[in-house]
Design a protein that fits this description.
The protein has about 150 residues and is an alpha+beta fold. It contains three helices and seven strands. It has helices at about 5-10, 45-50, 95-105, and strands spanning about 25-30, 60-65, 70-75, 110-120, 125-130, 135-140, 145-150. The chain has a seven-stranded antiparallel sheet, with helices on one face. Strand 5 (about 125-130) and strand 6 (about 135-140) form a beta hairpin. The chain is globular and about 45 Å long.
Length: about 150
């Protein structure tokens, strides 16, 4: 019996050319020490400045703020028409009052809060959520921090 070459037993090779394009975004996070809050005077501004000091025109897709944490998802390089915004443009001085207002929407004694800023649905929107023993309440503001919608705890 004659030996059959291995390449005769395998299916024919196909050469496929593929090209891929991947855009990655960078994230930045600032955590502050216990006993301090991102709502303390000037804390948020210092935190965002520390993330954008190398590129003051850098844009973001999302900014999330919690008691001791700031997290920013920056716009990928070459993202084209991404729904981004300048994180330095947010009304940080309004954030403490917004958290306080959301806390008064029936949550009881506030236990945690979060602010999220993005342009995923068009105009820049800042959402403030506060959770307490009686539920979670939220409000939405425009880019200047003016309340456009309130959602009481339920």
């Amino acid at each position: 019996m004659d030996a059959v070459p291995l390449e005769d037993l395998l299916p024919p090779r196909r050469t496929t050319r593929r090209s891929a394009c991947a855009a990655t975004s960078a994230t930045g996070t600032v955590t502050i020490d216990a006993g301090r809050s991102m709502l303390d005077r000037g804390e948020l501004r210092r935190a965002i400045d520390s993330l954008t000091e190398d590129d003051v025109k850098r844009t973001a897709l999302t900014v999330v703020v919690q008691e001791r944490l700031l997290s920013v998802v920056f716009t990928p390089t070459g993202a084209g028409a991404a729904p981004d915004f300048a994180p330095r443009s947010l009304p940080y001085e309004r954030f403490p009052a917004l958290v306080e207002e959301a806390s008064g929407l029936g949550v009881g004694s506030p236990q945690s809060w979060q602010l999220t800023a993005d342009r995923l649905t068009g105009a820049l929107t800042i959402r403030v959520s506060v959770t307490g023993p009686d539920g979670t309440a939220s409000l939405e503001t425009d880019a200047r921090g003016r309340v456009i919608r309130r959602i009481p705890a339920s």
